[in-house]
Amino acid sequence: MEPRARAGKNVGKMNFSHNELAQLLYAHGDVKVPLPETIRVLDEILTDFMQSTAFEATRAAQYAGRQKIKYEDFEFAFRKNPSYLGKVHEVFEKQKEIKKAREILRDGEDEIIKDAAEEEKRRDKAQEKVAVATPVVTIPSATSASSIATASAVPKTEMARREEELGEADDDVDDDFDALGKR
């Protein structure tokens, strides 16, 4: 079936959404809520334009001996209208720029992740070396036997790391008791 013969299928049907066309009209200076007839006419115009462009591109592809349409076929279809051709070139150039930017970002992200993993491994090795070389700290002022055993088995760097993990969160309980005057 010839592509032009399919054009009768879309008569009376909306091919684009009402919101898309209303936004397009508003972007080009129409009122915020356009008339339904305006939307219908714009839908028919856009549908006809897209069908005729696709028909011309299909014709160029068939002439070249292909069944699938390529970018060059659309370039050939727009060859008589330089403004359309320029827009098509612009869209594809932007698409290439976006693709390159994503690749750069992805490559940079991969490098950052690898560097962070290597840095973490180096830190872990350094902590292990320090933990082996550091003597074990005992806390004589602990009240229970279990806390003495726990404290004596933990190296000094490990205690510092635990303290660092908690940050100031462990100090809040003491501050609350001081503020309430219970100590």
TrEMBL record:
The keyword Transcription applies. InterPro entries: Histone-fold (IPR009072), TFIID_TAF13 (IPR003195). SUPFAM superfamilies: Histone-fold (SSF47113). Its main location: nucleus. Residues 165-183 have a biased composition (Acidic residues). It comes from the Eukaryota. One of its GO terms (cellular component) is transcription factor TFIID complex. Pfam families: TFIID-18kDa (PF02269). Keywords: Nucleus, Transcription, Transcription regulation. It is found in: Nucleus. GO terms for biological process: RNA polymerase II preinitiation complex assembly. Residues 143-183 are annotated as: Disordered. Residues 143-155 have a biased composition (Low complexity). GO terms for molecular function: protein heterodimerization activity. PANTHER family: TRANSCRIPTION INITIATION FACTOR TFIID SUBUNIT 13 (PTHR11380:SF5), TRANSCRIPTION INITIATION FACTOR TFIID/SUPT3-RELATED (PTHR11380). Belongs to the TAF13 family. This is Transcription initiation factor TFIID subunit 13.
